[in-house]
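Dear Dr. L.,

I hope this message finds you well. Following up on our conversation about the binding site, I have prepared a predicted three-dimensional model of the protein together with adenosine-5'-diphosphate. For your records, I am including the exact sequence and ligand specification that went into the calculation, followed by the structure tokens. Please feel free to forward this to your student if that is useful.
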Amino acid sequence: MNILFLASEAFPLIKTGGLADVAGALPRALIKRGHSLRLVLPAYRSVLERLRSDQREDKPPALKVRGQIDLDGTPVTLWQTRLPGTRVQVWLVDIPAFSERAGNPYVTPEGVDWPDNDQRFYTLCRAAAELAMGRAGIDWKADLVHANDWQGAMVCEMLAREAASPATVFTVHNLAYHGLFDYQAMHRLGLAPWLWQPDFLEFYGQLSFIKAGLVFAQRLTTVSPSYAREIQTPELGCGLDGLLRARREALSGIINGIDVQAWNPARDPCLAVPYDRRRLVRKADNKRALCTELGLADAPDKLLLGFIGRLVEQKGLDLLLATLPELLARGDVQIALLGSGVKAYEQAFTGLAQDYPQSLSVTLGYDEALAHRIEAGVDVFLMPSLFEPCGLNQIYSLRYGTLPLVHAVGGLKDTVIDSDDPQTANGFTFAPASVEALRATLKRALALYQDPEAWQQRQWNAMSGDYSWDRSAAEYERIYELALEDKKQNA
Ligand code: ADP
Ligand code: GLC
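The resulting structure of the complex is given below.
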């Protein structure tokens, strides 16, 4: 099958969150299964700079101009390269609004959306549609387009208007982000007036990009079975639950895999000491090294908790802020936190760290290597997310023998097993999302930590799981086939 995979970020070229991890790994797994795949990304300035500097070191991947498309007078340059370290062919869509702008792909340095996001990502989708249709002067045509999140959603509407067009699959990585724009955007983008209806792209007086995927794609997926059910409810449906219920026959949940090479404690170049489940004692060396690196007291017997992520409400930070101070005051735990996001959260955690410099370390910013060292060094990884479509850090934790402690929701519920059965338990879950439930579960973790044998059994279970993309890639393949059938039937 010829698959065009459209995303707004992909590791290692550009990453703000889990979508990049998926777009960096799933294409590889699909190619391994024999498909011809092209990954389409925006040519962000940082991506071009990175690829150009790689070139100077005289090593692949090569970056070259592959073509030019004219979109109603807007010239778009297409670059061709490969995803570093892989065989995945990448096409980069270059318009000045991507390639001449530094910083975050979606927001200004002040944290507000770039004012022209409608035009930037609409143009990305138009270029992707031309590529998929084989009209960009490149001898390749897609059988199927797999679009991701609101940034890629409009391609589904564009292809629905075309004759003999590829089938489309749309994946929701996070339903909380809709890509909403004012009514004027309809004119700016030249959209057909009939699309301005609640059944199509109108959403409470705004233009919703994500609806283009949800309404027009042949098949819909999201990143865990539980989240697929949750988004059909008013509680977690973000106002789109009615639409998702109407399309429930087309919707499935496929749990994300992880890049088991990049996240392998036995061969992780970021770690002080590599380890695996037979040499778990070496995990303690990583704990010690991490405490030294972060300025925490060397206290091997104390439970070390970790958190990595975007500091936003979704991640359950209010629960942490309501629970951790008492644990710190009692001297029960140490904590390593890495993240950035909402200023109020950043300030709350740095403020708390000033009170407990030996027990709480807060690193603001984005640091891939430190993320690996935290995964390896801590005993328990905290993810009290209010909702979590899939979540990747808890899976990295499992692989590193770090027991995840999570709110039983979405993908967290589907990956972390908390039970009395010593053969299956691999972490801790709590529900509901309350301070009391979190506190009680932290207590349970503290108690279990006093029982090294039981703890190691959970670590062993965690590290024995198969988290590779192989199984999920096969599930996507099945969905692609269904999408092709749907398309044929409706042609
Ligand atoms: P989300 O996509 O909602 O942010 P995920 O758990 O799916 O959540 O993925 C987050 C990814 O981003 C993980 O790979 C995580 O390690 C990484 N990450 C998030 N914040 C940071 C940070 N400050 N430094 C390094 N890596 C981070
Ligand atoms: C989103 C979700 C996260 C998921 C990731 C990759 O950012 O918030 O839960 O793991 O996408 O699918």
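In brief: The CA atoms of residues 60 and 263 lie 23 Å apart.

With kind regards,
A. P.
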